[in-house]
Amino acid sequence: MPCRDAPGLPVITLFVQSLTALKTEILTIESASKFEQAASRAADLLSSGRLAALPTETVYGLAADAFNAEAVASIYTTKGRPSTNPLIVHVADKSMLLECVREWPEIAEKFSQAFWPGPLTLVLPKSDRISDDITAGLDSVAVRWPGHPFMRAVIKNLGRPIAAPSANLANQLSPTSAEHVQAQLKGRIPLIVDGGAANVGIESTVLDLCGKNPTVLRPGIIHLESLRAVAPNTMHRSAQQSSGAQKSPGLHHKHYAPKARVIILDRSDSSQPNDLINQIRRLGILPAEACVLGLEDLPSPADFLRVCFIPHDPEAYARALYAELFLCDQLGPKWILVEAVPDTPAWEGVRDRLARAAGDE
Ligand code: TXA
Ligand code: MG
């Protein structure tokens, strides 16, 4: 028999929620003066131990003063994030960076020269200034010098590094717009800064520099071939797993999933029909219960809840992906059917997120 709330309980729950819900201020940054005001408001909140959702070039981040242990702890409670999943620390100059790490090897200097400011996170031995709450007890810290001018302005105004995971509730999609953040965190944080759609659209590449070879823990738009131009011995985590290399603790199965069940349809699979519609038929999926994300093959939109076409370009695809998954989820489909993307280096970040969304990773 289905469970039911006791009579009156929903009313009490709503009442308690309305007492505890925060008023969330939304600020925009489309003019120079609004940008300055929002940057100083965000820095004021962070310096008093509060949280704010801020735009970065990858996805929106849920920011706290990295040197304030209570503020860092409230990131975990606000997101419902397991304490075993460490946070990225964002810096905006070299001296701040050197406060966070115990060692700064030449290889780190080379990667930072090539890709910072930008969507690359480096994992290095942590300094004593970085608390165990940030690193989930690891002896290493993940650092990133973000490319987004607003995030950099807030770090500069605060004068300290900012700890920021993606600004979503645990196990939900990372937000690439202020609307996505609002849908998940409105009423839980005092400020959301709206910087428009994120330019990269998927989370940064995470590169571990603590071992013998630089190791990609999380693929992103900066892919293996670009990293190998800096250090030819760079490898993927999977290639090094058998040698006992440390796995990124946050990279859980199904970490980046929408609510609907995601299935990847590979038209190059010789055991399957080479068009989506016949693959969908074979799975016995009712089109009226499904959304489709096509790349080259587009079934008739009339039959499905939504059919969308994402450009055949990895950067444009990455930029659009989470927004499309959010839109699909809002229609309440049972299935999101995604045409597989090419198996080439430029697509590895997108392939990784699709595989995780489908629970295949
Ligand atoms: O683009 C991004 O990276 C965004 C923006 C806001 O900067 N942030 C983001 O944070 O995606 P989050 O918390 O959602 O993902 C951080 C990833 C997790 O997979 C975590 O396990 C990994 O970085 N990580 C953090 N510290 C680590 C460490 N010391 N060793 C290994 N992996 C680490
Ligand atoms: Mg995240």
Structural topology:
Blueprint: H1 9-20, E1 25-28, H2 32-47, E2 52-54, E3 61-65, H3 69-79, E4 88-90, H4 94-100, H5 106-115, E5 120-125, H6 132-135, E6 140-144, H7 149-158, E7 162-163, H8 178-185, E8 191-194, E9 205-208, E10 215-218, H9 224-230, E11 235-236, H10 237-240, E12 261-265, H11 276-283, E13 290-294, E14 306-309, H12 314-330, E15 335-339, H13 348-357
Parallel strand pairs: 1-8, 4-6, 5-9, 10-11, 12-15, 13-14, 13-15
Antiparallel strand pairs: 2-3, 3-7, 4-7, 5-6, 9-10
Bound molecules: threonylcarbamoyladenylate and magnesium ion.
Residues 56, 58-59, 61, 85-88, 121, 123, 135, 138, 140-142, 144, 164-166, 203-204, 206, 217-218, 248-251 line the site of threonylcarbamoyladenylate.
Report on this model:
The protein is α/β, with parallel strands linked by helices. The protein has 2 domains: 25-236, DHBP synthase (Alpha-Beta Complex), CATH 3.90.870; 255-357, Rossmann fold (3-Layer(aba) Sandwich). The chain has 13 helices and 15 strands. It has helices at residues 9-20, 32-47, 69-79, 94-100, 106-115, 132-135, 149-158, 178-185, 224-230, 237-240, 276-283, 314-330, 348-357; strands at 25-28, 52-54, 61-65, 88-90, 120-125, 140-144, 162-163, 191-194, 205-208, 215-218, 235-236, 261-265, 290-294, 306-309, 335-339. It has a 9-stranded mixed β-sheet, sandwiched between helices. A hairpin with a 6-residue loop joins β2 and β3 (61-65). The chain binds threonylcarbamoyladenylate and magnesium ion.
